[in-house]
Structure formats: C-alpha cells, structure tokens
Amino acid sequence: MSRWTVDASVAVKWFVSEEFSGEAAALLEDGPELFVPELFFAEVPNVLWKKVIRRQVTEEDAREAHRALGDIAFRVVSNQEIAPTAFDLALSLNRSAYDCFYLTVARTFDAPLLTADAKLAEALRSTPFASHIRRIGGGP
Asked: Which CATH number is 3-135 given?
C-alpha cells in the first residue's frame, strides 16, 4: 500500500473537473494511506468557496464535493503537534507555514506530499526536501 500526504490542490481535483483531475483521481485507485494535517479541512472548503465565487463550480457542486471529502479515510495529524516543526521549516525554506505543515507531515510519516502546486514543487526541487514531494501534472 502506498502512503501519501495530500494537499488541497490535489484533493479538489478529485471532485472538480480541471486540469490533471484524472491523474489526481488515479492516485486513489490502489487505496493508499492518506495523511493530512488538520489544516487540510480548512483549506479544501476555502478552495471550493473560491471556485464558487469565481463561478468555476456551482454552490451545489461545491457542497457535494465537500460532503464527498468526508467519505475518504485520512490519517489526520494535529496542527498543534507539528506546528513547531512546520514553523521552523517555513522560516528556513522561506515558504508559507501552510505549505510547511504538509511538508512536515510528509517527512514525519514518510508519506511524500502530492501537490499540484508547481511553485511549491519547484521551490523545493533543490533542497533536502525534494524527495518528500511529488507534483501531479507533470514536471518535477
């Protein structure tokens, strides 16, 4: 069984048809063990809200996507537990603390971070954390 940390950029693709949604959906096929920081459950609804505001999805579709998220089994990691490490990483990598919560989970549980965030993947490519991140949608 594979182990992954997933961020909101990937999870939203499971429910909203957009570029690389197929690749994101394929990740669920082998029943991987999925890790997320608690922060994930604030970020996904925020992304869905933005998509409603931008008229990229209907409110009804966004609500259904949010409900469907509850059907997926995640290993949820306490924000409080990993906050000190995530904050240290944010300062040392000059990345947002939000990104570093996911990176901390990936490193702690040996479950590489799956992201569709090209800027994040590129920023970490030449760091010691490169092995802890996988970008869907092509590229490193």
From this structure: 3.40.50.1010
> How many angstroms separate the CA atoms of 52 and 104, rounded?
30
Cα gap 10→8, rounded to integer Å: 5
| Residue 104: predicted pLDDT | 97
pTM for this structure? 0.90
Domain ranges of the chain: 3-135
Give 38 or 129, the one with higher predicted confidence. Answer: 38
* Sheet of strand 3-6: strand arrangement: 74-77, 33-37, 3-6, 113-115, 133-135
- The pair of structure tokens assigned to 45 is 């609804």
